[in-house]
Amino acid sequence: MASTSFPAQPSEKAPTLTSAPAPPETVVTSSPLAAFAAAASPFVNTYGRFASWKAGLGLTNPGTTENMQKEVKMTHATNHIFDGARADLSKALSFNPAFQVTHSFNLASYNNPATYNFGAVFANGDLFMQGGSDHDGNVTGRLNRGWSSNNITKVQMQIANNPNAQSMLQLEQDYQGQDYSLNLKAINPSPIDGTGIYVGSYLQSVTPRLALGFETVHQRVGPGMAESMTSYLLRWTSPPSPVSSLSAAAGAPAPGSHEPGKWIATAHLQAPGILQATYWQRLSEKVDVGADLQMIIAPGRRDAIATVGAKWDLRMSTMRAQVDSTGKVAALLEQRFAPTFSFLVGGEIDHVKNQAKVGVGIMLESSAMTEEMMAQQQPPSIPV
Predict the structure, then answer these.
(1) Which of these CATH numbers, 2.40.160.10, 3.60.20.10, 3.90.79.10, 3.40.50.720, describes 61-244+260-375?
(2) CA dist., res. 129 & res. 384, Å (int)
(3) pTM of the entire structure?
(4) Separation of alpha carbons 76 and 307, rounded Å
(5) Residue from 217, 167, 221 nearest 190 by CA
(6) According to the model, what pLDDT value does residue 20 have?
(7) 228: closest CA among 202, 197, 187?
(8) CA angle, 32 then 36 then 39, to 5°
(9) Which helix (H) or strand (E) holds 10?
(10) Largest CA distance in the chain
(11) More confident residue, 247 or 126
């Protein structure tokens, strides 16, 4: 049998799998700001945890270093006593904004000549200005500018009309944080040679009752003539009473330092061995007591002065009395016969030196506005 042959068919090519071309590789680069944020993230988180922990402690603002002994100074008669006769005549021209002028007369005393001073005060919600001039032509001025409720810039100046007296300029910045206070001062600063006195202080609440801080004074009197000194501060207060705790929980303002039983203790230790300690307590709604101790413990010198005083606030009068370890006894009575008229009489006896001084004075206030106009206006919140 004859074989039949078929023509050869072309072989089919097997399909091949080919991969799609890979897209171009993208290089991701981070911006410097993102890199900085990533590097700072651990520190930010740590600070956030620290701030949350500190907020849970219930810390409050400790006040300024300048007002640490304010309660004791207001209780003692030292800053209120005067010699001779004096009269203060004040007149309020406006209530809000506050504008007041004052004429002060001091008659000649045993140690001081007669003086006259004219003063004016203007204040509103964010500005406080005070100026004065005496009979010798010396001018004083003070300006406070409040940028916020806790940030105030202060300027004080004194221009002496006497070649033997020195004029003064003081620049100050005061900031009150939630649980700390920061204050910077520059007295007679010179931007040319850097001379002047520079003061920086910081006070921090470490517990609801205890605050610690420091104050550094840097004095530069000339090229290569500079010195610095650091002192340390302590403020310790009494625990809050149940009444103030309930008031704070209810949203009402706590009585604070006006509640009976409240006490405040402070200490100020300076480098050369100088210690000042104070204690103030409110015994009742009308009686305050205060004690002040100043000690010098330095090589070759040891000295101390202790002062104890009390203040009575009655309905129409205020009485201050004090005695110290040097033999001085002082008392001051302020009698208010009317809301606008007060009579003052005070005296001091130094039993060791066998000296005495007596002072009498009056304070008279008047207003250019009627009582109805004053009742319609609210007093401004003055930045001080």
Answers:
(1) 2.40.160.10
(2) 10
(3) 0.80
(4) 9
(5) 221
(6) 54
(7) 197
(8) 140
(9) none
(10) 166
(11) 126
